[in-house]
Amino acid sequence: METLNSKAPNKRMTGLGRGLGALLQDSDAVNRQAKPSPYETISTMSEISINQIETNPFQPRTRFDEEALQELAESIRVQGIIQPITVRQLEKDRYQLISGERRLQASKLIGMTTIPAYIRTANDQQMLEMALIENIQRENLNSIEIALSYQRLITECSLKQEELGERVGKNRTTVNNYIRLLKLPPVIQAALRDNVISMGHARAIINIENPETQIRIFRKIVDEEWSVRKVEEAVRNLSTDGSELVARKVTLPKMELRSLQFKLSSMFGTKVSIKADEKHKGEIKIPFTSQEELDKILMVLRHEGK
Protein backbone atom coordinates (compact mmCIF):
# COMPACT_ATOMS: atom_id res chain seq x y z
CA MET A 1 0.00 0.00 0.00
CA GLU A 2 1.36 3.38 -0.90
CA THR A 3 1.24 6.03 1.80
CA LEU A 4 2.46 9.57 2.28
CA ASN A 5 5.88 9.98 3.81
CA SER A 6 6.24 12.77 6.35
CA LYS A 7 8.83 12.81 9.11
CA ALA A 8 9.01 15.36 11.88
CA PRO A 9 12.33 17.09 12.56
CA ASN A 10 14.29 15.98 15.60
CA LYS A 11 16.49 19.05 15.97
CA ARG A 12 16.23 22.80 15.56
CA MET A 13 16.92 24.05 12.06
CA THR A 14 17.46 27.49 10.51
CA GLY A 15 16.20 29.18 7.36
CA LEU A 16 12.82 27.49 7.57
CA GLY A 17 10.75 30.28 6.12
CA ARG A 18 8.43 33.02 7.28
CA GLY A 19 6.73 32.63 10.66
CA LEU A 20 8.79 29.77 12.03
CA GLY A 21 11.40 31.99 13.67
CA ALA A 22 8.80 33.55 15.95
CA LEU A 23 7.70 30.12 17.07
CA LEU A 24 11.24 28.97 17.74
CA GLN A 25 11.90 31.95 20.02
CA ASP A 26 9.55 30.50 22.60
CA SER A 27 10.68 26.88 22.32
CA ASP A 28 13.10 27.06 25.28
CA ALA A 29 10.32 28.30 27.53
CA VAL A 30 8.08 25.46 26.39
CA ASN A 31 10.81 22.89 27.07
CA ARG A 32 11.32 24.26 30.58
CA GLN A 33 7.61 23.93 31.36
CA ALA A 34 7.17 20.31 30.28
CA LYS A 35 9.74 17.53 30.13
CA PRO A 36 8.84 14.96 27.45
CA SER A 37 8.37 11.34 28.39
CA PRO A 38 10.76 8.70 26.96
CA TYR A 39 8.26 7.76 24.25
CA GLU A 40 6.85 11.20 23.55
CA THR A 41 6.46 12.10 19.87
CA ILE A 42 5.90 15.69 18.81
CA SER A 43 4.62 15.23 15.27
CA THR A 44 5.32 12.36 12.93
CA MET A 45 3.58 9.97 10.61
CA SER A 46 4.03 6.28 11.28
CA GLU A 47 2.51 2.98 10.25
CA ILE A 48 0.95 1.68 13.47
CA SER A 49 -1.02 -1.41 14.38
CA ILE A 50 -4.78 -0.97 14.19
CA ASN A 51 -5.13 -3.14 17.31
CA GLN A 52 -3.21 -0.52 19.30
CA ILE A 53 -5.74 2.25 18.54
CA GLU A 54 -8.60 3.00 20.92
CA THR A 55 -11.66 4.83 19.65
CA ASN A 56 -12.30 8.31 20.96
CA PRO A 57 -15.00 8.23 23.71
CA PHE A 58 -16.03 11.76 22.72
CA GLN A 59 -16.65 10.83 19.08
CA PRO A 60 -20.04 12.46 18.31
CA ARG A 61 -20.83 10.04 15.48
CA THR A 62 -21.73 6.53 16.57
CA ARG A 63 -23.21 5.22 13.31
CA PHE A 64 -21.93 5.45 9.76
CA ASP A 65 -23.61 4.89 6.42
CA GLU A 66 -22.72 1.27 5.60
CA GLU A 67 -22.79 1.75 1.81
CA ALA A 68 -20.57 4.82 2.00
CA LEU A 69 -18.22 2.96 4.33
CA GLN A 70 -17.97 0.06 1.87
CA GLU A 71 -17.22 2.51 -0.96
CA LEU A 72 -14.49 4.13 1.14
CA ALA A 73 -13.07 0.68 1.96
CA GLU A 74 -12.88 -0.20 -1.74
CA SER A 75 -11.22 3.14 -2.50
CA ILE A 76 -8.61 2.45 0.19
CA ARG A 77 -8.06 -1.03 -1.22
CA VAL A 78 -7.25 0.47 -4.64
CA GLN A 79 -5.68 3.84 -3.82
CA GLY A 80 -4.37 3.29 -0.30
CA ILE A 81 -4.83 5.77 2.56
CA ILE A 82 -4.29 9.23 1.08
CA GLN A 83 -5.04 11.18 4.25
CA PRO A 84 -3.59 9.53 7.39
CA ILE A 85 -5.64 9.40 10.58
CA THR A 86 -4.56 11.36 13.67
CA VAL A 87 -3.99 9.68 17.03
CA ARG A 88 -2.79 10.71 20.48
CA GLN A 89 -0.14 8.61 22.14
CA LEU A 90 -1.35 7.51 25.57
CA GLU A 91 1.61 5.33 26.43
CA LYS A 92 4.06 3.12 24.61
CA ASP A 93 2.22 1.11 21.91
CA ARG A 94 -1.18 2.52 22.92
CA TYR A 95 -2.97 5.29 21.04
CA GLN A 96 -6.33 7.07 21.06
CA LEU A 97 -8.03 8.18 17.85
CA ILE A 98 -8.40 11.94 17.38
CA SER A 99 -9.69 12.09 13.81
CA GLY A 100 -10.27 9.63 10.96
CA GLU A 101 -12.93 7.29 12.37
CA ARG A 102 -14.35 6.42 8.93
CA ARG A 103 -10.90 5.70 7.49
CA LEU A 104 -10.09 3.49 10.48
CA GLN A 105 -13.35 1.53 10.24
CA ALA A 106 -13.04 1.15 6.46
CA SER A 107 -9.48 -0.16 6.86
CA LYS A 108 -10.72 -2.77 9.31
CA LEU A 109 -13.35 -3.89 6.79
CA ILE A 110 -10.71 -4.88 4.23
CA GLY A 111 -8.53 -6.62 6.80
CA MET A 112 -5.72 -4.11 7.13
CA THR A 113 -3.54 -4.68 10.20
CA THR A 114 -1.66 -1.35 10.14
CA ILE A 115 -2.62 2.18 9.14
CA PRO A 116 -0.66 5.42 8.51
CA ALA A 117 -1.26 7.87 11.33
CA TYR A 118 -0.07 11.23 12.58
CA ILE A 119 0.98 10.74 16.21
CA ARG A 120 0.43 13.51 18.73
CA THR A 121 0.84 13.92 22.46
CA ALA A 122 -1.16 16.15 24.76
CA ASN A 123 -0.27 19.87 24.97
CA ASP A 124 1.97 19.85 21.92
CA GLN A 125 0.16 22.36 19.72
CA GLN A 126 3.06 24.77 19.44
CA MET A 127 5.55 22.04 18.57
CA LEU A 128 3.09 20.57 16.07
CA GLU A 129 2.74 23.96 14.41
CA MET A 130 6.51 24.34 14.15
CA ALA A 131 6.97 20.86 12.70
CA LEU A 132 4.23 21.33 10.11
CA ILE A 133 5.49 24.72 8.97
CA GLU A 134 9.01 23.34 8.72
CA ASN A 135 7.70 20.39 6.73
CA ILE A 136 5.93 22.71 4.26
CA GLN A 137 9.27 24.34 3.41
CA ARG A 138 10.52 21.07 1.88
CA GLU A 139 10.90 21.45 -1.88
CA ASN A 140 9.96 17.85 -2.69
CA LEU A 141 6.45 17.93 -1.22
CA ASN A 142 3.65 17.23 -3.70
CA SER A 143 0.47 19.30 -3.81
CA ILE A 144 -1.58 16.89 -1.70
CA GLU A 145 1.08 16.76 1.03
CA ILE A 146 1.10 20.57 1.14
CA ALA A 147 -2.72 20.67 1.23
CA LEU A 148 -2.81 18.16 4.10
CA SER A 149 -0.25 20.19 6.06
CA TYR A 150 -2.26 23.38 5.52
CA GLN A 151 -5.46 21.63 6.61
CA ARG A 152 -3.82 20.28 9.77
CA LEU A 153 -2.53 23.73 10.69
CA ILE A 154 -6.05 25.12 10.34
CA THR A 155 -7.94 22.34 12.16
CA GLU A 156 -5.44 21.15 14.76
CA CYS A 157 -3.68 24.45 15.50
CA SER A 158 -6.84 26.59 15.23
CA LEU A 159 -5.34 28.92 12.61
CA LYS A 160 -7.40 30.98 10.20
CA GLN A 161 -6.38 30.99 6.54
CA GLU A 162 -5.01 34.54 6.85
CA GLU A 163 -2.89 33.53 9.86
CA LEU A 164 -1.69 30.43 8.05
CA GLY A 165 -0.74 32.51 5.03
CA GLU A 166 1.38 34.75 7.25
CA ARG A 167 3.08 31.71 8.83
CA VAL A 168 4.09 30.12 5.51
CA GLY A 169 4.57 33.29 3.44
CA LYS A 170 1.64 32.67 1.06
CA ASN A 171 -1.45 34.74 0.32
CA ARG A 172 -4.89 33.50 1.37
CA THR A 173 -5.87 32.63 -2.21
CA THR A 174 -2.90 30.28 -2.62
CA VAL A 175 -3.64 28.58 0.70
CA ASN A 176 -7.30 28.16 -0.23
CA ASN A 177 -6.44 26.70 -3.66
CA TYR A 178 -4.39 23.98 -1.98
CA ILE A 179 -7.02 23.15 0.64
CA ARG A 180 -9.74 22.87 -2.02
CA LEU A 181 -7.78 19.97 -3.56
CA LEU A 182 -8.85 17.82 -0.60
CA LYS A 183 -12.46 18.03 -1.85
CA LEU A 184 -11.56 16.14 -5.03
CA PRO A 185 -12.47 12.44 -5.30
CA PRO A 186 -9.78 10.12 -3.83
CA VAL A 187 -8.76 8.77 -7.25
CA ILE A 188 -7.92 12.31 -8.44
CA GLN A 189 -6.11 13.14 -5.20
CA ALA A 190 -4.05 9.98 -5.63
CA ALA A 191 -3.18 10.94 -9.21
CA LEU A 192 -2.08 14.40 -8.08
CA ARG A 193 -0.07 12.87 -5.25
CA ASP A 194 1.66 10.51 -7.69
CA ASN A 195 2.30 13.28 -10.27
CA VAL A 196 -0.01 11.66 -12.84
CA ILE A 197 -1.70 15.05 -13.23
CA SER A 198 -0.46 18.54 -12.35
CA MET A 199 -1.69 21.16 -9.92
CA GLY A 200 -3.01 23.11 -12.92
CA HIS A 201 -5.15 20.15 -14.03
CA ALA A 202 -6.53 19.72 -10.51
CA ARG A 203 -7.34 23.42 -10.08
CA ALA A 204 -9.38 23.30 -13.30
CA ILE A 205 -11.26 20.15 -12.24
CA ILE A 206 -12.11 21.48 -8.77
CA ASN A 207 -14.39 24.11 -10.32
CA ILE A 208 -16.76 21.33 -11.44
CA GLU A 209 -19.44 20.58 -8.84
CA ASN A 210 -20.42 17.11 -10.06
CA PRO A 211 -17.92 14.42 -8.83
CA GLU A 212 -18.82 12.05 -11.68
CA THR A 213 -17.99 14.73 -14.23
CA GLN A 214 -14.76 15.49 -12.38
CA ILE A 215 -13.72 11.85 -12.74
CA ARG A 216 -14.81 11.71 -16.40
CA ILE A 217 -12.63 14.69 -17.29
CA PHE A 218 -9.81 13.24 -15.18
CA ARG A 219 -9.96 10.06 -17.31
CA LYS A 220 -9.74 12.22 -20.45
CA ILE A 221 -6.65 13.96 -19.06
CA VAL A 222 -4.92 10.64 -18.43
CA ASP A 223 -6.07 8.72 -21.52
CA GLU A 224 -5.74 11.54 -24.06
CA GLU A 225 -2.95 13.50 -22.37
CA TRP A 226 -4.93 16.72 -22.15
CA SER A 227 -3.03 19.92 -21.45
CA VAL A 228 -4.12 22.26 -18.67
CA ARG A 229 -5.42 24.72 -21.28
CA LYS A 230 -7.58 22.01 -22.85
CA VAL A 231 -9.02 21.05 -19.45
CA GLU A 232 -9.86 24.68 -18.70
CA GLU A 233 -11.61 24.96 -22.06
CA ALA A 234 -13.60 21.77 -21.39
CA VAL A 235 -14.65 23.05 -17.96
CA ARG A 236 -15.81 26.36 -19.45
CA ASN A 237 -17.95 24.44 -21.95
CA LEU A 238 -19.75 22.42 -19.32
CA SER A 239 -23.47 22.87 -18.79
CA THR A 240 -24.52 25.08 -15.89
CA ASP A 241 -24.76 22.26 -13.34
CA GLY A 242 -21.61 20.57 -14.64
CA SER A 243 -23.43 17.31 -15.29
CA GLU A 244 -22.43 16.85 -18.93
CA LEU A 245 -20.18 18.25 -21.61
CA VAL A 246 -21.83 20.57 -24.11
CA ALA A 247 -20.67 20.26 -27.72
CA ARG A 248 -21.53 23.61 -29.18
CA LYS A 249 -19.87 26.70 -30.54
CA VAL A 250 -19.66 29.59 -28.12
CA THR A 251 -19.66 33.17 -29.32
CA LEU A 252 -16.69 35.28 -28.35
CA PRO A 253 -18.49 37.43 -25.75
CA LYS A 254 -19.91 34.34 -23.99
CA MET A 255 -16.52 32.66 -24.07
CA GLU A 256 -14.95 35.73 -22.49
CA LEU A 257 -17.59 35.74 -19.76
CA ARG A 258 -17.06 32.04 -19.03
CA SER A 259 -13.31 32.58 -18.89
CA LEU A 260 -13.74 35.50 -16.49
CA GLN A 261 -16.19 33.52 -14.36
CA PHE A 262 -13.70 30.63 -14.18
CA LYS A 263 -10.84 32.92 -13.12
CA LEU A 264 -12.92 34.71 -10.47
CA SER A 265 -14.17 31.41 -9.04
CA SER A 266 -10.57 30.23 -8.66
CA MET A 267 -9.54 33.54 -7.13
CA PHE A 268 -12.26 33.72 -4.47
CA GLY A 269 -12.61 29.99 -3.81
CA THR A 270 -16.35 30.10 -4.43
CA LYS A 271 -18.68 29.80 -7.42
CA VAL A 272 -18.97 33.25 -9.02
CA SER A 273 -21.84 33.97 -11.42
CA ILE A 274 -21.75 36.58 -14.19
CA LYS A 275 -24.71 37.77 -16.24
CA ALA A 276 -24.51 40.19 -19.17
CA ASP A 277 -26.75 41.23 -22.05
CA GLU A 278 -25.85 42.05 -25.65
CA LYS A 279 -25.01 45.60 -24.62
CA HIS A 280 -22.50 44.24 -22.10
CA LYS A 281 -24.58 45.34 -19.13
CA GLY A 282 -24.98 42.91 -16.25
CA GLU A 283 -23.81 41.89 -12.82
CA ILE A 284 -21.23 39.80 -11.00
CA LYS A 285 -22.34 37.82 -7.95
CA ILE A 286 -19.84 36.56 -5.36
CA PRO A 287 -21.79 34.56 -2.75
CA PHE A 288 -20.76 34.35 0.92
CA THR A 289 -22.44 32.75 3.92
CA SER A 290 -20.65 34.37 6.86
CA GLN A 291 -18.77 37.45 7.97
CA GLU A 292 -15.55 35.46 7.78
CA GLU A 293 -16.15 34.56 4.12
CA LEU A 294 -16.96 38.20 3.35
CA ASP A 295 -13.72 39.28 5.02
CA LYS A 296 -11.80 36.79 2.87
CA ILE A 297 -13.40 38.16 -0.31
CA LEU A 298 -12.57 41.73 0.70
CA MET A 299 -9.00 40.71 1.48
CA VAL A 300 -8.56 39.19 -1.99
CA LEU A 301 -10.00 42.33 -3.58
CA ARG A 302 -7.61 44.53 -1.59
CA HIS A 303 -4.68 42.28 -2.48
CA GLU A 304 -5.49 42.22 -6.19
CA GLY A 305 -6.03 45.97 -6.20
CA LYS A 306 -2.53 46.74 -4.99
From TrEMBL:
Pfam families on file: HTH_ParB, ParB_C, ParB_N
Any one annotated GO CC term: chromosome
Keyword Flavoprotein: no
Residue ranges of every copy of the ParB-like N-terminal domain listed in the record: 46-136
A GO molecular function held by the record: DNA binding
A biological-process GO annotation: positive regulation of sporulation resulting in formation of a cellular spore
Keyword DNA-binding in record: yes
UniProt KW keywords: Chromosome partition, DNA-binding
Family according to the record: Belongs to the ParB family.
The protein's name: Chromosome partitioning protein ParB
